[in-house]
From TrEMBL, chain A:
Top-level division of the source organism's lineage: Eukaryota
Places the protein is found: Plastid, Chloroplast
Name of the molecule in the record: BolA protein
Species this protein is from: Zizania palustris
Listed PANTHER family: PROTEIN BOLA1, CHLOROPLASTIC, PTHR46230
TrEMBL record, chain B:
Glutaredoxin domain location: 88-152
Biased composition (Polar residues): 44-53, 63-72
Protein name: Glutaredoxin domain-containing protein
Keywords associated with the record: 2Fe-2S, Iron, Iron-sulfur, Metal-binding, Redox-active center, Transit peptide
Family the UniProt entry places it in: Belongs to the glutaredoxin family. CGFS subfamily.
Presence of the UniProt keyword ATP-binding in the record: no
Chain intervals for the UniProt region annotation (Disordered): 44-72
Native organism: Zizania palustris
GO CC annotation terms, alphabetical: mitochondrial matrix
Record function comment: May only reduce GSH-thiol disulfides, but not protein disulfides.
């Protein structure tokens, strides 16, 4: 997942955090609470000029396979280099 | 049965406003259809509570009835209608007063900071509705928030807009709506076992 996001978005910074444990016992998590909820923080110049919805769609689009197999929710922070102050 | 399902589903739209006092949401989407007053910091003070919050009484919810009474209203139609007719709409897991997901709860809390009527549907109640909404927006997760007919995003985006002050601009011209019916006082005390207590 990291590789996909990294290369497709040419991310200057990418952080992926598996927070599935925070959601164990959640209504939609059946048996396996692993790798179901992630926090993703990505900084990429490709987000320049894109609304938040578009940016999130970009990320979702790259993770379609994962979303179809267990990945249940992701929190996305998607910034441009300028916005992140780096 | 199909007729019952679709009619009830159309009525499954829940409206709420900033009501700090929790109201009953323990009924399934098939049964209930609740309105809350647009309170401004205090609980429903308009009196005149209905006997139950249940959609069984068509008179109370006249203006929320669909114009077409056809039982074969497709989910796509329902979704389109929801989006068109409700200035603030959230497809969520659970209900505004009993969310079943942290992200849904967060989105509701953010929206409730503004004095606007919030319409909500529980997508956990019906997988077909869930799929319809997903197909409509091409967005894989819930909650999904629509403002004035436009898909705005999920809980991340709503929170971000709120923090940046953008949400105020978007919601500013939506008039707080006084609802027609309110849940009976006793309904408020029904089980709220699914309520997540989030600290913002």
């Amino acid at each position: 997942m990291r590789q996909k996001l990294q290369s497709a978005l040419e991310a200057s910074a990418l952080e992926i955090e598996d927070v599935s444990y925070q959601h164990a016992g959640h209504a939609a998590v059946k048996d396996n609470a692993n790798e179901t909820h992630f926090n993703i923080r990505v900084i990429s110049s490709k987000f320049e000029g894109q609304s938040l919805v578009k940016r999130h769609r970009m990320v979702y689009g790259l993770l379609t396979d994962e979303l179809n197999s267990g990945l249940h929710a992701i929190s996305i922070v998607a910034k441009t280099p300028t916005e992140s102050g780096s | 049965m199909a007729r019952l399902v679709s009619t009830a589903l159309v009525r499954g739209l829940v409206r709420s406003c900033r009501a700090p006092s929790a109201a009953a949401v323990s009924q399934s989407a098939f049964q209930q259809f609740m309105n809350y007053s647009s309170g401004i910091g205090h609980s429903n003070a308009n009196g005149g509570s209905s006997s139950t919050g249940v959609a069984a009484d068509p008179d109370t919810h006249q203006d929320f009835q669909p114009t077409s009474k056809s039982p074969s209203m497709s989910f796509n139609d329902i979704v389109s209608q929801d989006i068109k007719e409700n200035p603030v709409l959230i497809y969520m897991k659970g209900y505004p007063d009993a969310p079943r997901c942290g992200f849904s709860a967060l989105a509701v809390k953010v929206l409730q900071r503004y004095d606007v009527p919030i319409s909500a549907r529980d997508i956990l109640g019906d997988p077909k509705l869930k799929e319809s909404v997903k197909a409509h927006t091409n967005w894989p997760t819930f909650p999904q928030i629509f403002i004035k007919g436009e898909f705005v995003g999920g809980s991340d985006i709503i929170l971000d807009m709120h923090q940046k002050g953008q949400l105020k601009d978007v919601l500013g011209d939506i008039a707080p709506r006084v609802s027609k019916a309110m849940p009976h006082e006793e309904d408020n005390k029904l089980s709220m076992g699914l309520l997540f207590d989030l600290v913002m």
